[in-house]
Structure formats: structure tokens, C-alpha cells
Amino acid sequence: MEGKNQTVLLNDNVTISCKVPGSTPLNIKGMGVIWYRKHQVDETEHKVFEMYGNYQKAFRAGASVSPVGLEKGDASLHLSGVKPRDAGEYRCEVVVTPEKAQGTVFLKVLASPKCTLFQEQATTKDDGDKYILCKASGFYPKDINITWYIYTQENPQGQEISEGITNGPAIKNEDGTFNKTSCLRLEHNVVTCQCVIRHISLPTSCRSNFPMSWIGKHPLNISITLHLVGAHGRHAVTLSRPNEQRLSLQVTLSRPNEQRLSLQGRGLREMRG
User: Fold this and answer.
1) How far apart, in whole angstroms, are the C-alpha atoms of residue 40 and residue 48?
2) Which one of 51, 62, 99, 139 is at 20 to 30 Å from 193 when CA atoms are compared?
3) pTM (2 decimals)?
């Protein structure tokens, strides 16, 4: 087997490598190939695919081994539309009578979080405190870190805070990904708050700013610049106004380096960075 670890993004296709040592071409009619995946909870093995001569069976939809590739000594397993449940240790077992060989590869599945930052008016508080919610959704694996920074006139450089924050649990979605929400109670002297999300799928942390000038302004008068940092692909961004109307858009990053998006419209002023 070539390699001990492989990484794939959610919903992508992947080929898990397994090479048969020895001379080629091989007579596949006298060969057997079985792929197993180890369950991550109870560590029991389950068949994913098997092939004996002209017989083959996929125990996971979209699993296959190329007969043409097998003749050349390539017993790699192809999986289409990878989901979180596909993550784990895979074992390839190849029999070329009378020889037998096997090897393992650990497959990691990653899904980047989609970030939403919006204001919520507390309905259970008599003092009418306002809260900012930072939500990370659709990420995998489960571990994620959400932190807050505040910027004040006295401290324009900003500082990380730990008080006034309520972090919810990671909630599992039907597709196996997770959502998590962090809530920050607003202070009167805060000029801007920033939510920072760190996840193994992100090459660098995702930072979203919420200027306090967004709150309680009618008509709406805001300026916003979003800094999107991530790998190639589409990124969903949701913005919320104080009146709870949300503006959503899809952003495609063409390069892995930082991209800047500026929003302008009626009642908005330009902000340069």
C-alpha cells in the first residue's frame, strides 16, 4: 500500500491507494480483493467491496475496483460522494494464489464550516440586553474552536474575552456534519466585536467582524468588508441586519490566498482597508 493517511473533502470522490507487489500483467481470474472499513466506535470491520475473478460486489454504494487497473497491480478502492460516515481505517486484502498481502490506510473526511454572524434581541431578559450570535454550520470533524475579540476606543488593538460568552454544544446534522453556536452579550463600550473560528479544514482561522454601529440604526447605515480566507471552492456568507432581515450570498474563492469582498448599497458608506 502506498501511504498511510489520505484526506478528502465532503462530497468529493476519492481513490484509496492499494498496489500489488510483483510483476504485471496479473491474471485477475485467479485473484481476490477485499476492502474493509473499521468502525470508529466499536472497531469492528465491515466489508466495503470484494472481487473474485469475474464476481464483484459493493457493500457501499459507489465503491469499485477497476479490473483494468487490477491487471496492472492496482487494487485501489474508488469511493464516490464521500460522507462523514466514510471516515476511518481501510484495509486492503489481496490474494494472488498462493500469495497474500494486505495493508491499511486511514481516510480523513473534512468539511469546512459556513460562518453566520448576526444580532439577536434577548426575549427572556428584563434589561433588554442584546446578543451577537456566531454560528458555524456544516463542519466535520466535530472538534471546532470559536473565540471572541472586542475592540473599544480605549483598546483599539482588541483583546480576546472569556466573559459574557455562552457556547452551545456541537449538534449533529442528518448528513453527519455538525453545527455550533456561540453567543456574546454586548457591552456598551464595545466598538466592534470579532468572532474567530478555527477548524482543521481551514488553512487559517476565519474571522468575522460585527461593528456596533449596525445596532439600532434606522434607516440602516452600515459599512462592511469581509475577509474570506480558505481553500478553493464556494463559501456561504450570511449577514444579518438589526431588523432580523438577512442577506445571503455565495462566494467562490479562485485562489487560496486572502480575498476581499466589499458590499455597498443604499444607505451604506464606503470603508477602505
Assistant:
1) 15
2) 139
3) 0.70
Residues 120 and 182: their CA atoms lie apart, in Å, by: 12
Residue for cell digits 456596533?
A: 212
Query: Do 156 and 63 belong to one domain?
Result: no
- How many residues does this entry show for the chain? 273
Q: Are residues 127 and 80 in the same domain?
A: no
Q: Is residue 270 part of a domain?
A: no
User: How does the average pLDDT of the chain come out, rounded?
Assistant: 78
Nearest Cα to Cα of residue 144 among 118, 112, 116: 112
The answer to whether 115 and 208 have CB atoms below 8 angstroms apart is yes
- How far is the C-alpha of 225 from the C-alpha of 223, rounded, in Å? 7
Instruction: Please check whether residue 217 is in contact with residue 264, taking contact to mean a CB–CB distance below 8 angstroms.
Output: no
Which grid coordinates belong to 60?
A: 457501499
- The per-residue pLDDT for range 27-85, each reduced to its tens digit, is 888 899 999 999 877 788 999 999 998 899 999 999 999 999 999 989 999 999 999 99
Give the C-alpha separation, 28 to 44, whole Å: 29
